[in-house]
Write a structure and sequence with these properties.
The protein is α+β, with helices and mostly antiparallel strands. Helices cover about 60% and strands about 15% of the residues. It folds into 2 domains: about 240 residues, Beta Polymerase, domain 2, CATH 3.30.460.20; about 70 residues, no CATH class. Strand 1 and strand 2 form a beta hairpin.
Amino acid sequence: MTRYEVVEGKVAESKAERAPIWVFSAPDDAEKARLIDEFKLDSHTLGSALDPDEPSRLEFEPEHLAVIFKRPKNYSAKDQFVFKVASTGLFLFKDKLVVVIAEDVPLFSGKYFHHLDDLEAVFLKLLYISIWHYLEHLKVINMISEEIEKKINVSMENKYLLNLFSLEKSLVFYLNAINSNEFVFEKLKNNAQKIGFCPKCVEFLDDIIIENQQCYRQAEIYSNILASLMDARASIVGNNLNILMKKLNAIVVAVMVPGFFASVGGMSEWTMMTGRVSWQLSYALFLAAMLLMGFATYYAIEKYERH
């Protein structure tokens, strides 16, 4: 557990026992018990804050406001091109903000946590920063998909197609999460007076809703593009494989033709026919003739296939 406070408009770590912002990252059983007993958090809501499969929601408790929202999970190489989402719980009291998160990530770093006036502003900034993370991840997904598409154009493996499927799956996760967050943002706006948001916070909440809608549309565009091009990419891989098989067949035929002529006469017959010529020269000529015949056959097959 880490404590923070707002100092000169910025969020700074604090050692004070009464610090207004408490962050529980991957809380253990003792910390969960403290959250339930001391802060009166509902055990089911607390579990939802740590469960990536829980939908976003807003709940009014007697002493606090509980918000569960979805944010992008930090990507690691072991995820195999699958960008996942995680849940985060924000519990807003009159004089305290409790954040519960399943993984230890920096929450208050970056340029966005400046010019903060109160806990409500920090609360809304945490919601807003999740949208920014989605947009950054969408840029990365787009860059990765472009690189994979370049490799697919010359590839004969299914590996890159499977990578694209993983990216498409990630975009579906993101679309569901962003859409789920939108319901929470709309509900916050509709209950702004009940929560006690100031006019400045309400205006910022409007901006959050607009940004979230734009983020959803961008994710939807990327998802539609990937889905529509998937069949075409699969056809490219199949076509590349067919081209390779044709080349291999041409090579096999090119080897078989001179092999046929060589086997008809046999090595003993060739030796008798060239008895007056040294065997080094005769077999060198024989090898050259077979190679020339093989290349000519391969060239003829390639020319025929082009036309």
